[in-house]
Amino acid sequence: MEKYAWRAKLIDGKKDEYIKRHDEIWNEMKVVLNEAGIKNYTIWCDGDDLFGYYECEKGLEYASKIQSESEVVKRWNAYMKDVMFMPLDKKTGVQPHLQKVFEFN
After folding, report:
1. What is the DSSP letter of 1?
2. Where is pLDDT greater, at 73 or 92?
3. Which residue from 89, 95, 2 is spatially nearest to 43, judged by alpha carbons?
4. How many C-beta neighbours within 10 Å does residue 8 have?
5. 72: which DSSP letter?
6. If I label 93, which of 7, 33, 66, 102 is the partner at 20 to 30 A Cα–Cα?
7. Residues 2, 4: Cα–Cα separation, whole Å
8. Strand 49-56, strand 2-10: pairing
9. Are 22 and 43 spatial neighbours (Cβ–Cβ below 8 Å)?
């Protein structure tokens, strides 16, 4: 199972709204994440810095493809634009890939 991590920034004063929107995540978004094979998805916040991590049951390439082609994900990204800033990778259409430099099992 491939692992994936992303980072982003909250817009000043939007932390509570960011949390609220994830507390109320759309069911159709959950369906897309499941279809993409995304498991163990977690997001952390430190001040205005966001860090997300998930595992790709069907591989990172598959998860990226499903997300980049999804109208639901496009609507979610538009919905989140006023609370966070996350540039997307121009090749994949999803969050830029972070380089893993250490893993301890």
Report:
1. -
2. 73
3. 95
4. 19
5. H
6. 102
7. 7
8. antiparallel
9. yes
Res. 28 pLDDT band, cuts 50 70 90: very high
Residue 18: both structure tokens together: 């960011």
Query: Angle 81-8-72 (CA atoms, 0-180°, nearest 5)?
Result: 45
Task: Measure CA 47 to chain center.
Answer: 18
Catalytic residue selected from 22, 30, 74, 100: 22
From CA 16, how far away is CA 62, in angstroms rounded? 32
| Whether pLDDT at 96 is above 80 | no
pTM: 0.87
CB of 2 closer than 8 Å to CB of 62: no
- For residues 96 and 12, the model is more confident at 12
| Residue 97 annotated to the active site | no
Count the Cβ atoms, other than its own, within 10 Å of residue 58. Answer: 16
Confidence band of 93 (pLDDT split at 50, 70, 90): low
